[in-house]
Amino acid sequence: MSAPFKKVVIGLDLSPNSIAAFRWFQRELAGAAEVVVVHAVDTPRVPVFVRKAFPHFDEWMISMRRGFDDRLLELTRKDALKVESLEGPPVTVLLQQAAAHGADLIVVGAQGRHEGLGRLIGSTPERLLEQATVPVLVPRGAGAGIERILVAVDDSAMADQAAILARRIADGHEAELALLNVVPTWFADRIRFHASEADARDQLATLEREARQWLRDRARKLELGDGVDLMVETGAPDVQILHAAARIGAQLIVMGTRGEGLDLVPRLGSCARYVLRNAHVPVLFVPPTGI
């Protein structure tokens, strides 16, 4: 199986989610990719009274770090992977190492132990997605095998890149590929508001046919091959993406990190954030910079 990625940085903090993400990637997508496992050691500032109460605090921290390093080596020994344990905040370390190694993918586990707080201040995956210039894979609820891939598509270049990357992955797994375009609720509601019930029904049916033809043309332009499933839904894009993935039994979702609006500063789109937090299958996010 040919690998869709050449160089990959995997963030591994030994939480159950990060271990599951590491194992899923190695099993399903690693192929012949060069993989570097990165553990970021973000040592908190310790109050003076703690050091007074625990005079051997530094020795304890060194011992704990050695324990982490030993566990990392144990997890990666079978695949003979390069392991780096570095000081610094996880997002900063992962981005720096991805750039240093020329990685074309970053893999991280879903938010772990402090998920409640993470939803308020932004989890490590969310902050990573806001700044990454390469695709980021977040394996969540990862099962075995990739038989169906769902790609969320709009008319952005970022969505085109997502579809192309999904095709590469599908080819390596002989998986089925589905393209989904969601007609926003507000647009359908305007049609219903300004037209009679019968006219609105006809206009919405026409809209769905046009959207399906647009998807067909898009797939042809991107050379995605035959047999691509074309899906058009109406509603909130974030919700419809998850509903569609569940309906077709997708084992992987591929989508952009933000919508088509003008962003003056890097940020994670609300749709991508919702999917990241609520998906039950791995999600591969493609940034505006593409693949």
Task: Produce the secondary structure layout.
Blueprint: E1 7-11, H1 16-28, E2 34-41, H2 48-53, H3 57-76, E3 82-87, H4 90-101, E4 105-107, H5 115-121, H6 124-131, E5 136-138, E6 148-152, H7 157-173, E7 176-184, H8 185-194, H9 197-221, E8 229-235, H10 237-248, E9 252-256, H11 270-278, E10 283-286
Parallel strand pairs: 1-2, 1-4, 2-3, 4-5, 6-7, 6-9, 7-8, 9-10
Antiparallel strand pairs: 5-10
Structure commentary:
The protein has 291 residues and is α/β, with parallel strands linked by helices. The chain has 2 domains: 140 residues, HUPs (Rossmann fold); 147 residues, 3-Layer(aba) Sandwich (Rossmann fold), CATH 3.40.50.620. Helix content is 48%, strand content 19%. It contains 11 helices and 10 strands. Strands 3-2-1-4-5-10-9-6-7-8 form a 10-stranded mixed beta sheet, with helices on both faces. Helix 4 packs across helix 6 and helix 10 runs parallel beside helix 11. About 5% of the residues have low confidence.
Short description:
The protein is built from eleven helices and ten strands. The chain has helices at 16-28, 48-53, 57-76, 90-101, 115-121, 124-131, 157-173, 185-194, 197-221, 237-248, 270-278; strands at 7-11, 34-41, 82-87, 105-107, 136-138, 148-152, 176-184, 229-235, 252-256, 283-286. Strands 3-2-1-4-5-10-9-6-7-8 form a ten-stranded mixed beta sheet, sandwiched between helices.
